[in-house]
């Protein structure tokens, strides 16, 4: 198990706590055999230690209680309550329309439902760009009202003052550079960032967010060789999405990764399941049984 070898304080190596879903078997130790106790809660220093040991970090989006419980039990280190809920939950065409007030209840549901994973609250468009103080006050809401363990914001050099203000105020910050979806109109659409002469800008952004105090940085749609160079230069972990396999970790939107959403998908998505077909078949069977009268049967009736 990746996490079982991490150095931790006695408090953090307590037995894996049961969450709202009961008491799951610790990920990576299904037999329950005696050995090093797994980490009770992922902290920022555990992620840095994983980078130092060359261990990869897994991250998925989650917006609700049940997926949070499942992904937590699976051993995913980071759960992102992303602004991607805008177009994966709320039916918008982009991430831009979602608000703080819409994201906080989702964040609260996820944070209440996990025992081990670190919950990342995603600051939506317009909630932090105006000033460091605006960003800090928004992040406070995610921590106090949403129960987030940290927050994520998009931007590099230009967001360093916001990151510094948040970290100075006791809020761990994950940065997001490369392609930043909240800036899609300014960037000219969904385009790879960091090709050619702009590669230096990606490294400059990465170093700036690290210097400002970010504990990790997401790199989206960055050429693999550039992402590898950035990863080697930084002391903090890098999380890739469309940035090759030499980042310290990877993140995907869960509906993409597990086939709940179909149709045209980004090149960097790998689908590990076909949940849409499973749900569609189940719903059709339910519909047929209701209409032919076979459900509810005697065993489903009081």
UniProtKB/TrEMBL annotation:
Role noted for this protein: Catalyzes the reversible reaction in which hydroxymethyl group from 5,10-methylenetetrahydrofolate is transferred onto alpha-ketoisovalerate to form ketopantoate.
Cofactor note: Binds 1 Mg(2+) ion per subunit.
Assembly and oligomerization: Homodecamer; pentamer of dimers.
Residues reported to bind Mg(2+): 83, 122, 154
SUPFAM superfamilies for this protein: Phosphoenolpyruvate/pyruvate domain
Amino acid composition bias (Polar residues), ranges on this chain: 1-11
Catalytic activity of the protein: (6R)-5,10-methylene-5,6,7,8-tetrahydrofolate + 3-methyl-2-oxobutanoate + H2O = 2-dehydropantoate + (6S)-5,6,7,8-tetrahydrofolate
Organismal lineage: Bacteria, Bacillati, Actinomycetota, Actinomycetes, Propionibacteriales
Binding of 3-methyl-2-oxobutanoate, residues: 83-84, 122, 152
UniProtKB keywords: Cytoplasm, Magnesium, Metal-binding, Pantothenate biosynthesis, Transferase
GO MF annotation list: 3-methyl-2-oxobutanoate hydroxymethyltransferase activity; magnesium ion binding
Protein name, as recorded: 3-methyl-2-oxobutanoate hydroxymethyltransferase
Naturally occurring in which organism (per UniProt): Nocardioides faecalis
Cross-referenced InterPro entries: Pantoate_hydroxy_MeTrfase, Pyrv/PenolPyrv_kinase-like_dom, Pyrv_kinase-like_dom_sf
Functional pathway: Cofactor biosynthesis; (R)-pantothenate biosynthesis; (R)-pantoate from 3-methyl-2-oxobutanoate: step 1/2
Cofactor(s) in the UniProt record: Mg(2+)
Protein localization: Cytoplasm
């Amino acid at each position: 198990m990746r996490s079982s070898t991490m150095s931790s304080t006695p408090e953090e190596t307590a037995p894996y706590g049961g969450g709202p879903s009961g008491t799951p078997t610790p990920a990576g130790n299904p037999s329950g055999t005696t050995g090093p106790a797994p980490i009770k809660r992922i902290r920022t220093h555990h992620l840095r230690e994983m980078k130092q040991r060359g261990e990869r970090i897994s991250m998925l989006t989650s917006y609700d209680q049940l997926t949070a419980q499942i992904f937590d039990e699976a051993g995913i280190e980071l759960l992102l309550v992303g602004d991607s809920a805008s177009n994966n939950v709320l039916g918008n065409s982009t991430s831009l329309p979602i608000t703080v007030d819409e994201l906080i209840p989702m964040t609260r549901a996820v944070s209440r439902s996990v025992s081990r994973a670190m919950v990342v609250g995603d600051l939506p468009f317009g909630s932090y760009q105006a000033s460091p103080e605006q960003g800090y006050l928004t992040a406070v809401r995610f921590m106090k009202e949403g129960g987030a363990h940290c927050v994520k914001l998009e931007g590099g050099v230009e967001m360093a003052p916001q990151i510094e203000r948040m970290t100075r105020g006791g809020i761990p910050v994950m940065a997001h550079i490369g392609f930043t979806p909240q800036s899609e109109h300014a960037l000219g659409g969904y385009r790879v960032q960091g090709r050619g002469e702009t590669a230096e800008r990606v490294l400059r952004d990465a170093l700036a967010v690290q210097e400002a105090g970010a504990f990790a940085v997401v790199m989206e749609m960055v050429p693999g060789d550039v992402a590898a160079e950035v990863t080697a230069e930084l002391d903090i972990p890098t999380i890739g999405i469309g940035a090759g396999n030499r980042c310290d970790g990877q993140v995907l939107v869960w509906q993409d990764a597990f086939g709940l959403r179909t149709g045209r998908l980004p090149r960097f998505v790998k689908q590990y399941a076909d949940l849409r077909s499973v749900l569609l078949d189940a719903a059709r069977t339910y519909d047929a049984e209701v209409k032919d009268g076979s459900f509810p049967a005697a065993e489903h009736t009081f």
